[in-house]
Amino acid sequence: MGNRSAADAGGLLAGRGPGTGTPGSGAALGAAGAAALVGGVLLIGVVLAGNSLVCASVASERSLQTPTNYFIVSLAAADLLLALLVLPLFVYSEVHGGTWLLSPRLCDALMAMDVMLCTASIFNLCAISVDRFVAVTVPLRYHGQGRRQLLLIGATWLLSAAVAAPVLCGLNDVRGRDPAVCRLEDGDYVVYSSVCSFFLPCPLMLLLYWATFRGLRRWGATRRAKLHARAPRRPSGPGPPPEPSLPPGPCGPDCPVPGPVLHRVSCGPGCLPLDAIPEAELPPQPPTQALRKRRAKIPGRERKAMRVLPVVVGAFLVCWTPFFVVHITRALCPTCFVPPRLVSAVTWLGYVNSALNPVIYTVFNAEFRAVFRKALRLPCP
């Protein structure tokens, strides 16, 4: 996912052009091509099956339709598009030893889709962090369903398309371009896209997650303290039982409660029955404790969905950090030698991340696990 090459030497496929995988080692190239073909087909199949199952499960199971899972569906959609639009061409070129045999326009489209989908993935993770931060820090103003999540998801895709648009607008059409190598030709754009797609959003995302989980810990500690303070305490010595509280009378709050007179209520002088006071003049009633509690807390289902997010973010960073470090190093230091095998390895590692998320949901989220078993008709253990 993303901006694969430095401007000077190699891009999509480890900087290997027609001169590096020459027929001098035909048997080795054939073995490497076969391994790339088998691995690529397996990877595409796993990404398609796993992320399709995620989308279908959230769409069909009401218990999974939470704000956090809407972003997970958007993330799964980015991985599905990657498997459909990027991985087949990547594997095709890997099978041919890194030589690009198709048109330059198709290469530009591949580069743009690669940049956009990688950016969409990390922007979706950032959108989740923003949404969860708002839900924890201002819960009374947070409304869990609908509009905010859709706006954030739409913004992530629009911004991702904006980052990738220069490639489709002719940025790669440079003089002396080698048609046998598919890469990003502009070194400045490589740095720009790397910063926008990874190095800028990652620290922001981690900071927001840190603040979110810190807020959750504080909320939990406050809640436990309140529950402990409200717990009834038995008196230490003998004594009369507490007097039961009387129900409110029909008169105003400052009026004594009279007895019935001829089957009707008669209030004291200067007092009116409550039903005679206009509703607009009554003092506003504070919301009940149950309502405040319901509005101020995050539902248990949402908290369960949030537990899987650190694992998803951690897997993304483990898979993509090596790629972006190598990627920007090649752009900033054209004279530095980076082994083609290293570039190819970190590229494959980044793409493997698209297959990991459904596995993470299965292992770390009991609701996803139950729905997956139901969809696949697997028996419970």
Automatic annotation (TrEMBL):
Q: Which domain of life is it from?
A: Eukaryota
Which family is annotated? Belongs to the G-protein coupled receptor 1 family.
Natural source organism:
Sciurus vulgaris (Eurasian red squirrel)
Recall the taxonomic lineage recorded for the source organism: Eukaryota, Metazoa, Chordata, Craniata, Vertebrata
Q: Where in the cell is it found?
A: Cell membrane
Q: Which residues form a coiled coil?
A: none
Membrane topology (UniProt): Multi-pass membrane protein
Which PROSITE patterns does the UniProt entry name for this protein? G_PROTEIN_RECEP_F1_1 (PS00237), G_PROTEIN_RECEP_F1_2 (PS50262)
Instruction: Give every G-protein coupled receptors family 1 profile domain span.
Output: 50-361
Which InterPro entries does this entry report, sorted A to Z?
A: Dopamine_D4_rcpt, Dopamine_rcpt, GPCR_Rhodpsn, GPCR_Rhodpsn_7TM
> Keyword Glycoprotein, does the record have it?
yes
For the region Disordered, what residue ranges are annotated? 227-250
Q: Which keywords accompany this UniProt record?
A: Biological rhythms, Cell membrane, Disulfide bond, G-protein coupled receptor, Glycoprotein, Lipoprotein, Membrane, Metal-binding, Palmitate, Receptor, Sodium, Transducer, Transmembrane, Transmembrane helix
Role, per record: Dopamine receptor responsible for neuronal signaling in the mesolimbic system of the brain, an area of the brain that regulates emotion and complex behavior. Activated by dopamine, but also by epinephrine and norepinephrine, and by numerous synthetic agonists and drugs. Agonist binding triggers signaling via G proteins that inhibit adenylyl cyclase. Modulates the circadian rhythm of contrast sensitivity by regulating the rhythmic expression of NPAS2 in the retinal ganglion cells.
Q: One Pfam family for this entry, by name?
A: 7tm_1
Any one GO CC term of this protein is: plasma membrane
UniProt-recorded name of the protein: D(4) dopamine receptor
